[in-house]
Amino acid sequence: MPAEKVEECHRKVTAYVVKRLHPFSDVESPTFRDMIRSINPKYTPPTRDYLANQLIPTWYNIEKSNVISELANVHSVALTCDSWTSIAQDHYLTVTAHYLVEGKMKQKVLQTKAVYTAQTGHAVAEEIGDILKEYGIFDKVVAATVDNAANMDIAIKRLKFVKLGCFAHTLNLAAQSLYSLSAVTQWTAKIRSIIVWMKRSSMAKVVLREKQDLLKLPQHSLILDVRTRWNSLYLMMERFLEQYPATQAASLDQRLRKNMERDRLSRLSDEDFRKAEDFINLMRVLYTSTLCVSTEKNPTCGQILPILQKLEMHFTVVEGDTVFVSNLKKQVWANLSKRYQSEEIRNFLEVATALDPRFKKNMDGDDAVGVWDRIKTDMMMTDSEHDQSTEDDCGEGSDFRRTMGSEKRHIKNDEVEEEDENQQPPSKHPRKSPLEELFADEDAEKMSSQRRTMSTQDHAEKEMQMYKETPPTFTSDDPAAWWWNQRMTYPLMSNMAFSYLCVQASSTPSERVFSTAGLSRVRYIAGLKDNFDIVFNLLGPQTETKSKADDF
Asked: Which residues 6+ apart lie within 8 Å of 117 measured at CB?
């Protein structure tokens, strides 16, 4: 076989082993080699040693070089970080970078590595700092979104980055605070005891299935809540409501009734059912809010304040609320109202909300005047950066130069391509005519000349006024793509918006690495020892579509 063909086959085998989490020893197994021999008798697969020490490291170095090259042309980067401890007490740290390229959000897992030192705030700061310096983006970081762990808080502050607490984690803490209410504890304990009993009894499963068929209900199993898992109390009650008729019918069946009476299980009442209905109606908004920032591909921090405003209205006690509902509302909002109260964080989130075209009307009140003043001041400070080119987005050149250079910068390596069903579809940008592409630099210079005819302050005020008068976009629209398409109209504001839109509302992108769907990856790679970092980063970000809430 020609050397080029052998190398291509090697690349395909390497991608197969890494992407599908196969053991390295598979390439030496008789069945694998027999299969390859049947497909192409002239090709000899690589040995395990050659795969582990030559092919995979070479592939990794190419991929890492491509990421570093791409990040070199980016102006602003946001981080999400998370850590995880395995059953064997091995500790892992992951850092994910988020940035915009031509109005498209991109994310890269910079590193997921095993760490063997005490994870104090200072140690975590040093580890994260080393990763960022390795990729040349330490000075480009806008903010970092992390969970509420004390060591992460200390680490981000030590690095002097803006630290945002994971909004999904914040919502989960508010939901978990309901466990502290005695009324909720007693009521849920009664329902939980029935669910536990029925899940442990094989006969109960058979009887429940019969009642579901009879009542034409979905054949779903009952769900048991786990306090540390997101939204599990809500999901347990939602399933309880769905299966309440079947559960009641099963508890009256003679095959179960005696055993239930013998175990002194309390019978469920209509009051329990009404409480479950009230609970679901109240907590559905909180559950949906969690999904907003954990299932969307790129939930930006501009969503946080609008969601909190909606939650505040929803959890305000009104006339007609039962005592049970009033207590739930007070408990949840008492927990949420304490979050994001730091002046620095509040100012950051207010600007992010104003620059999100979907939610800018939330910053229209009299108390939001200071937000727009801060935006105008920041635009005036960064005006000089825009004089280089109004086509410049996040440090890149004109469309024409990007088009001419993209073939060299973005050559696809067929060995590393694998179709990602969850990949974000490209945003629809208006296509330039050949004449516009050819004279892009001249048009940019004309725009720059027009801008110089008015003062920086006048130009900033004009842009801001035009933006405020433009109708808000739909929540389904991509704010980054909107700003990219409007960058010629708002050259100052668009540059500022790109810096905020890459900041994530949740640290879910990093947490997914260690989610239930990702644990098989971690266990597989944990056995690789010296190849751990390399293989994990070649796998890329976890591409599961479900939220962390759905893992439980």
From this structure: 123
* pLDDT tens for each residue of 337-391: 999 989 999 999 999 999 999 999 988 877 778 899 999 888 888 765 545 444 4
8 Å CB contact between 73 and 498: no
User: Are 464 and 375 in contact, with CB atoms under 8 Å apart?
Assistant: yes
CB neighbour list of residue 264: distance below 8 Å, 6 or more residues apart: none
Q: Residues 325-342: pLDDT tens digits?
A: 999 999 999 999 999 989
φ, ψ of residue 212 to 5 degrees: the values are -65, -40
For the chain, what is the largest distance between any 2 Cα atoms, rounded to a whole number of angstroms? 89
- Location of structure tokens 């739909």: 474
> Rounded to whole angstroms, how far apart are CA atoms 310 and 10?
54
Task: Yes or no: say if 114 and 528 are a contact pair by the CB < 8 Å rule.
Answer: no
Q: Is 305 exposed, middle or buried (0-12, 13-18, 19+ CB in 10 A)?
A: buried
Report the 3 state secondary structure along 490-551.
CHHHHHHHHHHHCCECCCHHHHHHHCHHHHHHHHHHHCCHHHHHHHHHHHCCCCCCCCHHHH
pTM of the predicted protein model: 0.80
